[in-house]
Amino acid sequence: MSAQLIDGKARAAALRAEVAQGVAAFTAAHGRAPGLTVVLVGDDPASAVYVGSKGKATREAGMVSGEYRLPADTAEADLLALIAQLNADPAVDGILVQMPLPRHIDSDRVIAAIDPAKDVDGLHPVNTGLLVSGRKGLVPCTPSGCMLLITEAMGNIAGAEAVVIGRSILVGKPMAALLTNASATVTLAHSRTRDLAAHVARADIVVAAVGIPNMVQGDWIKPGACVIDVGINRIALPDGKSRLIGDVDFAAAASRAGWITPVPGGVGPMTIACLLANTLAAAHARA
Ligand code: NDP
């Protein structure tokens, strides 16, 4: 392996410590700690784990953690009523509705109901618009975390060629906007892209957010590139156990890249750290 390994776990721990200091200062200045409330609808086990770890991280940062676990058959109107209640609650700075929602609930309507100033997931159309306009708003946590890792590895990325693979509203599109705002030249690739290998081959920065194990081949990577693997794929092993791998063929890519994130331990830990940072920023903006 010639690439430098980007230690997302260590970077996330440092960011969480920074946020905890900021939270202590906020609490001393305003007589209350910032609050993050997470809403989970249904009993998807993976979502329940995410919600649990978000609550734990929130408390560890010194913030107030609120949690609502609603049954899978919750009516959309009841969820919207809860969001209205949280929007009006002065102790709540951040609201996160865990996705995906059950099919009978319109997730666009739910996201649009969250006060944009409390939308710490950065998915409200107002925050999306601010991001695309290059103005200050709440930015989705995963691309925010990727951006920190990229700029800390590479420094100024103005003029760099960047390829983002995946165009979801959660990762790919905001990632492309952040890289554009930092003056990279951005290609946003997706399932209809022709000759993905050729796009990746000229990229100084590759961000893979697809959800297909090892789909980005090592020999596509431009020597010296910065490779950020957002993918989280659980692979069954012959012994009946399982393990997590990314969207990038790690071993082959690491022999050509300049920097690379591992899976797990790369982008994943940054997401929660950025959620905490967003909550503190939202608290300051509302104070
Ligand atoms: P989505 O399923 O919403 O989006 C996947 C994207 O990949 C789509 O835009 C799709 O294109 C594109 N795609 C699918 N097949 C191909 C292909 N063959 N070639 C090029 N592009 C393709 O996923 P998310 O963005 O939500 O998540 C992506 C991955 O990142 C998942 O593995 C997820 O688990 C992980 N993830 C990790 C996080 C973390 O904290 N580390 C946080 C969020 C997600 P099209 O639009 O044309 O269908």
UniProtKB/TrEMBL annotation:
Domain Tetrahydrofolate dehydrogenase/cyclohydrolase NAD(P)-binding: 140-285
Pfam families per the UniProt record, alphabetical: THF_DHG_CYH (PF00763), THF_DHG_CYH_C (PF02882)
Classification via InterPro entries: Aminoacid_DH-like_N_sf, NAD(P)-bd_dom_sf, THF_DH/CycHdrlase, THF_DH/CycHdrlase_cat_dom, THF_DH/CycHdrlase_CS, THF_DH/CycHdrlase_NAD-bd_dom
Gene Ontology terms describing biological process: L-histidine biosynthetic process; methionine biosynthetic process; purine nucleotide biosynthetic process; tetrahydrofolate interconversion
Alphabetized UniProt keyword annotations: Amino-acid biosynthesis, Histidine biosynthesis, Hydrolase, Methionine biosynthesis, Multifunctional enzyme, NADP, One-carbon metabolism, Oxidoreductase, Purine biosynthesis
One GO cellular component term noted in the UniProt record for this chain: cytosol
Binding positions for NADP(+) per the UniProt entry: G166, R167, S168, I232
An annotated Gene Ontology molecular function: methylenetetrahydrofolate dehydrogenase (NADP+) activity
Record's catalysed reaction(s): (6R)-5,10-methenyltetrahydrofolate + H2O = (6R)-10-formyltetrahydrofolate + H(+); (6R)-5,10-methylene-5,6,7,8-tetrahydrofolate + NADP(+) = (6R)-5,10-methenyltetrahydrofolate + NADPH
The keyword Zinc-finger appears for this protein: no
Statement: the UniProt record of this protein carries the keyword Repeat: no
Pathway assigned in UniProt: One-carbon metabolism; tetrahydrofolate interconversion
Domain Tetrahydrofolate dehydrogenase/cyclohydrolase catalytic residues, every copy: 6-121
EC number(s) reported in the record: 1.5.1.5, 3.5.4.9
Protein role: Catalyzes the oxidation of 5,10-methylenetetrahydrofolate to 5,10-methenyltetrahydrofolate and then the hydrolysis of 5,10-methenyltetrahydrofolate to 10-formyltetrahydrofolate.
Quaternary state and interactors: Homodimer.
Family listed: Belongs to the tetrahydrofolate dehydrogenase/cyclohydrolase family.
Name under which the protein is recorded: Bifunctional protein FolD
Origin species: Sandarakinorhabdus cyanobacteriorum
